[in-house]
Design goal:
This protein is an alpha+beta fold. 44% of the residues lie in helices and 22% in strands.
């Protein structure tokens, strides 16, 4: 059980898998295996069949194309995936991969499973993965040439779709990674980022089913949005994690707003979902301040997320500012 949970936790950190439901992550985990590889060893060669993809649990992997003078074209580190484009595209490897240091990798599917059988047994999951892959590709393209894309109207519409979470209608984690701090000087002098995670969401999922879990997530999104001011921004970060960008807010006010949010989530009526009034949702919240803590959006997310996880590790129902 511990190994399965370790796989699911790793998958949840990867952009490609982060929007999958819990039972879908369980399926991926069941068909995956961890393995160790030594520094310098090849993982796959250019031109070979792409029967699997990988996630780095620890260590570092280099991606090389022998068509451009043995150039390293990417470096993959912990919590990142590689090989997914060729695997999901059902084409031969466009580059080679090797371990740049001793590494632990998660391989999907494991060697004993046929990818063709999995495609046919779980078509919905693979369809969702392909949709996520579109978002990953789009994000990487935007980072390379964002100005060109922003000038094209239909690509702006596509960008809007990819920045929104389909289930809740809130912005998604791609928005936070799109350097949203760039917009802040036009809106206000400072801002607070709140990262929010329910402590006992698993009780709803396990006790009442994944459909009830999805309904609870939608309810959280509605109540989060109801607590935001006109210029504030609500985000579904990944899985059961949410974020709120509070414009023109100092740290003391951010703490007050976080306390109000915590109370709002606790007082949500979940009886229509669970059939009982006994379930109360508690949350852990981490706060990071722009520009006081950092002016980099990625670092702002990291700081707030680490505080949120620390609050949860302390037992939950806590706010760390």
């Amino acid at each position: 059980m511990a190994l399965r949970e370790e796989k699911v936790e790793l998958l949840r950190k990867v952009d490609l898998f982060s929007q999958l439901r819990e039972y879908e992550l369980d399926v991926i985990a069941n068909y995956s295996d961890f393995f160790e590889i030594k520094k310098g060893q090849a993982i796959f060669s250019q031109g070979s069949p792409a029967h699997e993809m990988y996630v780095v649990g620890s260590g570092r992997v280099g991606i090389i194309s022998f068509e451009i003078d043995d150039a390293r074209i990417a470096q993959i580190t912990a919590d990142e995936s590689f090989g997914e484009f060729d695997f999901l595209g059902r084409i031969n490897r466009s580059a080679a991969a090797f371990a740049e240091e001793d590494s632990v990798l998660l391989k999907f599917p494991a060697i004993k499973y046929s990818p063709d059988e999995l495609f046919h047994e779980h078509p919905v999951i693979f369809a969702r993965l392909l949709y996520s892959l579109l978002g990953v590709v789009s994000e990487r393209i935007w980072n390379v040439n964002k100005m060109l894309y922003d000038k094209t109207h239909w690509l702006q519409d596509l960008r809007k779709q990819l920045l929104c979470d389909k289930m809740t209608g809130l912005y998604n984690q791609v928005f936070l990674k799109e350097d949203f701090v760039n917009m802040l000087p036009e809106i206000g002098k400072n801002a607070a980022l709140l990262m929010i995670k329910p402590d006992n969401f698993k009780d709803i999922n396990d006790g009442f089913g994944h459909e009830a879990g999805d309904q609870a997530l939608n309810l959280m999104a509605i109540f989060l949005q109801s607590e935001l001011r006109e210029n504030d921004i609500g985000v579904r970060f990944r899985g059961d994690e949410y974020a709120a960008v509070l414009i023109d807010t100092d740290r003391d006010e951010a703490l007050i707003r976080a306390i109000e949010l915590r109370s709002t989530f606790y007082n949500m009526d979940l009886s229509g979902i669970t059939g009982t009034a006994d379930i109360k949702l508690t949350v852990s919240i981490g706060i990071a301040m722009y520009p006081e803590d950092t002016q980099c959006s990625a670092d702002l997310v990291k700081i707030a997320h680490e505080k949120m996880m620390k609050a949860r590790g302390n037992g939950g129902d806590e706010i760390i500012k």
